[in-house]
Design a protein that fits this description.
2 domains; single chain; rod-shaped; mainly alpha
C-alpha cells in the first residue's frame, strides 16, 4: 500500500517526494530528538552534590541535541519557503503563458498567404494547360499574371506576419525582462 502511494505522489512531479517524505521525516526526526533529549534530561542528576557529578558526555549530548532541534525547525521552514516560491513561480509562468497565447492572431494575413500560395500554384497549372497554345499571350499571359499576383500576396502576407511576430517578441521581451543572451540576434537591444 505504501508503494502505491509513492507512485501516485511521484506522478505529481519532483515536489511530491519533498512534500511527503522529507517533511514527514523532519517531523519524525525532530520528535525523536526531543524524546532522546527528554530521556537525557531525566538521566541527568537533578542536584549537584559532591557524590553525584554530572557526566560530561551526557551534558554534551544533551546540548548537541537541543541545538539540532532549532536547526530541524529552520530546515522545515526553508522547505516551506521553497514550496511557496515554487508555487509563485508556477503561477507567474502560467500567467505569462496566458498572455502569450492571448495575443491576437492576424487571420487576414494568414489567409492571404494561403490565397497567394494557391494563386502561385494556379499559375503553374495554367502554364501546363496552355503549353499547347501557339500564341504567346495565351501561353504565358495567364500563368505569368497568376504567378505575379500569387508572389505579391505571399510576400505581403509573410512580411506582415513577420512584423507581427517581431512586435509580439519585442513586447514580451520588454514585459518579461528577457536578458540579452536569451534573445535571438535579430531582436537584440539595438532594435528596442
Amino acid at each position: 500500500m505504501g508503494g502505491e502511494a509513492k507512485e501516485s505522489d511521484t506522478a505529481r512531479g519532483q515536489l511530491a517526494p519533498i512534500e511527503s517524505e522529507l517533511r514527514s521525516s523532519i517531523d519524525i526526526w525532530r520528535r525523536n530528538l526531543e524524546t532522546i533529549g527528554v530521556g537525557l534530561q531525566e538521566r541527568r542528576p537533578s542536584g549537584v552534590t559532591p557524590s553525584t557529578k554530572p557526566d560530561p558526555a551526557l551534558e554534551s549530548w544533551h546540548a548537541l541535541i537541543y541545538r539540532m532541534i532549532p536547526e530541524m525547525d529552520r530546515a522545515k521552514n526553508d522547505l516551506r519557503v521553497v514550496a511557496e516560491d515554487l508555487a509563485a513561480a508556477k503561477a507567474d509562468a502560467e500567467y505569462r503563458a496566458v498572455l502569450v497565447s492571448a495575443w491576437p492572431v492576424n487571420h487576414f494575413l494568414d489567409r492571404m498567404s494561403y490565397l497567394g500560395a494557391a494563386l502561385f500554384g494556379g499559375g503553374g497549372a495554367a502554364f501546363v494547360y496552355a503549353a499547347g497554345f501557339q500564341d504567346l499571350l495565351y501561353r504565358f499571359g495567364p500563368a505569368t499574371s497568376l504567378w505575379a499576383l500569387g508572389l505579391v500576396l505571399l510576400t505581403y502576407s509573410l512580411r506582415g506576419l513577420s512584423r507581427l511576430d517581431s512586435s509580439k517578441w519585442l513586447y514580451f521581451a520588454a514585459a518579461f525582462r528577457i536578458p540579452e543572451e536569451f534573445r535571438p540576434k535579430r531582436w537584440r537591444s539595438w532594435r528596442l
